[in-house]
């Protein structure tokens, strides 16, 4: 059987008891390490599990999945995913390939940033569709996410923004010379995301994610040093939430006073926060 | 410190290793048992934890929270929540009360039905706001959820419907005679939810959740006997997914072929499923 096991958000102890039992008895253990990362390294996981772990990069999962699926109709194979197994499309695809080979699958759910972001006090049932923000380059500034924020905003909902992760990306100059050299991992910060949102707002001009828009940045959700910062996008663009992973929530119009009361404790500046909150409510 | 610990969705082994460590060392352990339930009883949890657990019903949490918070500034108190701790507004409120008393809090995230529903193959970032469906009575048929589905539908998103749970409800006839007798627990089924949606659609007539609308019902997500059934609301209104807890997803217009391919394996009838899927896409 192929087991998809969620590892949760922070470190080796966020695995569930059920998940840990399967990892310990599985014939092979893969760690998907390109759509999200834990705050601990592979060696820490291996020490905790008492066994070795194979890193599954994007190429292995998308092009060499036969290696992962080999013999999984006879033995237990564990495929570990940071967060919840169904957070990324990639894993849905892997289940489909297993089905084609008549390999039974099993899923062990866990915390995801999609619900972990509830630590902000924003009510999870008031979120609209989730968007992803990629690193802009000089000539590539994708902004299709803007329309999705616009849709969420029109019906008053919060928008969770998942931030880009670049792991094991080849250096393009080296690649042009026929050499494969990997860039160091990069993780988008709340400040970078806020800055990119402000830039696109200046181009589009619908007034949904400009400098004054109210948002909240989170870092290392579920870890002891979890950090939450609430403020305008301009304030967040100047913030430093420390080590990855970061996420951002753009706050919608339909809010509950309980959300404000909870979130206010994390405001960069309570006065600016109150003003931005009042201004947001005027747009209703 | 007051620890909010998510228990996940199915049974005693869905707690995280981190959560279990805190439960074992806490001075007191409360189990919130009215917004959701696990598939195992309190005694199973107590045997697994090796310690006793205090059931916290709605009255205790909302009216007698001082008992829960007592001494939590000096000792560890664990407050266990089925699913993820931030799934229900109640817990946000409890954190606020702890803050007022200068009691530090800590949250241990876990799987929630909001992400567990990814087991259907529907992409989690394509969900709109979540709605709740309560049991209709002869003279109380709340339908404010209909407008929210309408909003989600307009922008093509899926809608997760959380189904009513009645735990420890007093019998009204007995109450009128001055006696408190509790009704047996009741859990709404996918069939009941589908039926209520069809009834309200017949009144409102926007064509979003009638007999032909495509939906998927899930039961006991994360458990070994997890069940997924895809079909029209009419088909689901005649389905039997077995024991609680059930949830339902109304499928939006903006779908990916991967979602169809994944979900089709759970169709009541593949032909009807394909027809309903094609019809849904015509509405784009």
TrEMBL record, chains A, B:
Keyword field: Methyltransferase, S-adenosyl-L-methionine, Transferase
EC number annotated for this UniProt entry: 2.1.1.314
Pathway: Protein modification; peptidyl-diphthamide biosynthesis
InterPro entries associated with the record: 4pyrrol_Mease, 4pyrrol_Methylase_sf, 4pyrrole_Mease_sub1, 4pyrrole_Mease_sub2, Dphthn_synthase
A single GO molecular function term of this UniProt record: diphthine methyl ester synthase activity
Residues reported in the UniProt entry to bind S-adenosyl-L-methionine: 9, 84, 87, 112-113, 163, 221, 246
Catalysed reactions listed for this entry: 2-[(3S)-amino-3-carboxypropyl]-L-histidyl-[translation elongation factor 2] + 4 S-adenosyl-L-methionine = diphthine methyl ester-[translation elongation factor 2] + 4 S-adenosyl-L-homocysteine + 3 H(+)
Transmembrane parts of this sequence: none
Domain of life: Eukaryota
GO BP, one annotated term: methylation
Residue ranges annotated for the Tetrapyrrole methylase domain, each copy included: 1-236
Matching Pfam families: TP_methylase
Functional note: S-adenosyl-L-methionine-dependent methyltransferase that catalyzes four methylations of the modified target histidine residue in translation elongation factor 2 (EF-2), to form an intermediate called diphthine methyl ester. The four successive methylation reactions represent the second step of diphthamide biosynthesis.
PANTHER family membership: DIPHTHINE METHYL ESTER SYNTHASE, DIPHTHINE SYNTHASE
Similarity remark: Belongs to the diphthine synthase family.
The name this protein goes by in its record: Diphthine methyl ester synthase
Provenance organism: Lasiodiplodia hormozganensis
């Amino acid at each position: 059987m192929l087991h998809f096991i969620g590892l949760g958000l922070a470190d080796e102890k966020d695995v569930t008891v059920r998940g840990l039992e399967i990892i310990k008895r599985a014939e092979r253990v893969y760690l998907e390490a390109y759509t999200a990362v834990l705050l601990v390294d592979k060696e820490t996981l291996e020490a905790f599990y008492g066994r070795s772990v194979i890193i599954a990069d994007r190429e292995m999962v998308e092009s060499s999945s036969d290696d992962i699926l080999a013999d999984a109709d006879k033995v237990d194979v564990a495929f570990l995913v940071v967060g919840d197994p169904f957070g990324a499309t990639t894993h849905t695809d892997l289940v489909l390939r297993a089905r084609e080979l008549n390999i039974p699958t099993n899923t062990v759910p866990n915390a995801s940033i999609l619900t972990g972001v509830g630590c902000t006090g924003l009510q999870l049932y008031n979120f609209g569709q989730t968007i992803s923000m990629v690193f802009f380059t000089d000539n590539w500034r994708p902004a299709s996410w803007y329309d999705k924020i616009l849709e969420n905003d029109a019906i008053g909902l919060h928008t969770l923004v998942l931030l880009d992760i670049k792991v094991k990306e080849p250096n393009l100059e080296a690649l042009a010379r026929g050499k494969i050299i990997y860039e160091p991992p990069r993780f988008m910060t709340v400040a970078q995301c806020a800055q990119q949102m402000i830039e696109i707002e200046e181009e589009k001009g619908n007034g949904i994610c400009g400098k004054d828009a109210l948002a909240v940045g989170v870092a290392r959700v579920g870890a002891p040093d979890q950090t939450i910062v609430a403020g305008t996008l301009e304030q967040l663009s100047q913030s430093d939430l420390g080590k990855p992973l970061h996420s951002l929530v753009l706050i919608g119009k339909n809010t509950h006073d309980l959300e404000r009361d909870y979130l206010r404790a994390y405001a960069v500046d309570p006065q600016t926060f109150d003003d931005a909150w009042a201004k947001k409510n005027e747009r209703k």
